[in-house]
Automatic annotation (TrEMBL):
Cited Pfam families: FCD (PF07729), GntR (PF00392)
Keywords: DNA-binding, Transcription, Transcription regulation
Protein name: HTH gntR-type domain-containing protein
Molecular functions (GO terms): DNA binding; DNA-binding transcription factor activity
UniProt superkingdom: Bacteria
SUPFAM superfamilies: GntR ligand-binding domain-like (SSF48008), Winged helix' DNA-binding domain (SSF46785)
Domain named HTH gntR-type: residues: 11-78
């Protein structure tokens, strides 16, 4: 089976600005409730206001930004109920395609290599914890692993659903606040999940995926509680 779903296609200036703003939100550089002024952002990123406005409109459709009548745009506050629903759907999606992923990894060794390389990059990223882009990079690699997992199901519609679940809306509650040891725990969970998939152990893979999503839920809940957002 040929896998031809591009995960990160080349983009335009609007795509670039969109990615930058999304990363800043994920890393809590732009905080929930913070006002977003297109003129200020245009000066900040050294571009015109047009791509800024287009990027912000895309972020509105994804639920990261909201437009308030007569008040302008701001980073949207995310509720625990919304995050919990997203994680529940993520778990359903991951569990449903376990057998397909096992089959396709067996038939396409390059998929296993891509997943393993992502884990290796995650591990290497731990040494960059003092780097300003550490949390963005950590999120991107974690998301890349899960994106590759769904892509490995061979179902292009499932990949669309994954993208539409807006997993990045809760990323800052994990990567912007958790210690290095917690990040390492997540990487080990990825390693164990991949190992069971390669070995064809469907039941064990489902068990580990369930634990992985449960741990993410617990980390996010703790972060929200710590910041009085519950």
């Amino acid at each position: 089976m040929e896998m031809d779903y591009p995960l990160h296609p080349p983009g335009t200036l609007v795509d670039t600005i969109y990615d930058v703003i999304k990363k800043e939100i994920a890393a809590s550089h732009l905080k929930p409730g913070e006002k977003l002024n297109s003129r200020v952002l245009a000066e900040r990123y050294q571009v015109s206001e047009t791509p800024i406005k287009q990027a912000l409109n895309r972020l509105i459709t994804e639920g990261l930004v909201e437009s308030i009548p007569r008040k302008g745009m701001r980073v949207r506050m995310i509720s625990w109920a919304e995050i919990d629903e997203i994680l529940e759907l993520r778990l359903m999606l991951d569990l449903f395609f376990v057998s397909d992923v096992i089959k396709n990894l067996r038939e396409n060794p390059e998929l296993t290599e891509q997943l393993n390389n992502t884990i290796l990059c995650q591990t290497a990223c731990l040494d960059l914890i003092e780097d300003a882009d550490y949390y963005n990079r950590t999120y991107e690699l974690d998301n890349r692993f899960h994106e590759l997992y769904i892509a490995s199901s061979g179902n292009s519609k499932a990949l669309e659903v994954f993208h539409n679940l807006n997993s990045h809306v809760y990323s800052s509650f994990i990567y912007g606040r958790q210690p290095k040891e917690q990040t390492l725990e997540g990487i080990r969970e990825h390693q164990n999940i991949l190992g069971t998939l390669v070995n064809g152990d469907e039941d064990k893979a489902k068990e580990l995926i369930t634990i992985h999503i449960s741990n993410a839920r617990n980390h996010i809940y703790a972060a929200l509680k710590h910041n009085d957002q519950l």
